[in-house]
Design a protein that fits this description.
Order of helices and strands: EEEEEHEE
Structural class: mainly beta
Helix content: under 10%
Radius of gyration: 22 Å
């Protein structure tokens, strides 16, 4: 019945499902605290300046589904090649050299 008791006197207890996901990521940060990632909870992953997630850009949102599975894999923050993407501010006559997390 709804009280958690069976007619034979035994009882049951329900536990919430949790998703597994990384609470830290290289070259980024997350808002997950307490280590639990429960159903319908979301985690925001933010890549540090000079890095992005190849799937979603700088900010990634992962939601724990009712089945206990995250909506996507944990993001991976990789270096942005500012020279190749032409997002640098080097003068036209200067050469651009990509570095990890930045450029020269």
């Amino acid at each position: 019945d709804s009280s958690g008791d069976f007619s034979n006197g035994s009882s049951f207890q329900c536990y919430p499902r949790n998703c597994s996901s990384e609470s830290t990521i290289a070259n980024g940060m997350t808002n997950l605290t307490g280590g639990q990632f429960s159903v319908n909870q979301t985690i925001n992953y933010t890549c540090h300046d000079g890095y992005h997630d190849v799937v979603s850009g700088r900010v990634s949102i992962v939601k724990c589904g009712v089945n206990g599975e995250p909506s996507r894999l944990t993001p991976s923050c990789v270096d942005i090649d500012e020279c190749a993407s032409r997002s640098h501010t080097c003068p036209e006559q200067a050469s651009c050299s990509n570095t990890i997390g930045s450029y020269n």
